[in-house]
Design goal:
This protein is mainly alpha-helical. The chain is built from 13 helices and no strands. The mean pLDDT is 79.
Length: 253
Amino acid sequence: MDIATALLLAAAGLAGGVINALAGGGTLVTFPALLAFGLPPKLANATSQVALWPGRLTSVVAQFRDLRDLGPRTMVSFAVGLAGGFVGAQLLIAMDPAVFRSLVPWLLLAASLIFGFSKPITRWLTTRGGGGGKSPAMQAIGRVCEFAFSMYGGFFGAGLGVIMMAGYAIAGIQDVKQTNALKNMMGVVITTTSALTFIVRGEVDWPAAIAVLSGALVGGFAGGKLARVIPDMAMRVLVTAGGLFMAGWYFIR
């Protein structure tokens, strides 16, 4: 990898780190960037997940009290996330590269729309997730959704946060702080499982991962500082538009 490519990938990581810190959705920048620089789709996806993984840890540490208040269900979710993330990563590894390539525009499109409309989706689910969601049957359905969404996180991951919120709304968790803390914890668990799987199986382009990671670490710190300055809605519109553009590009290629 030449210096110019490394710097451009670091810039993509910087942007992804800022976006993750402000609103989530950094994968919608780093994954297309790795594709643009010639990585095959499966390798780009795995490399992106590994590169962005460290930036997810700080939010979980900051919300440890909310996780503790959830009690035993936190450990159950932890186990579900480990299993689902592992299965999703194995699915990606086993999938034919041509099949995954055909899925790329659909994955980008779905993730972009979920990210763009995440706030109204979350509000809608939160207002309708209580009541009957606390019944044993609905809690069981919530667990099934949690496992399925964990598989998605291990397989691709963009837009995972909003998708996880849907499962917790179905399961009847109404406290927004607890739901957000659990969602962030699951993001770490799922991506840790998938990242370790990709590393062990040799599915990571390390020069590219290190370049993106170096930018993402700086971007995560900068995003924390910029959170008070940049409007959340402006960031969401920009990232969603970029994701939709990339989806359209890969549809017509």
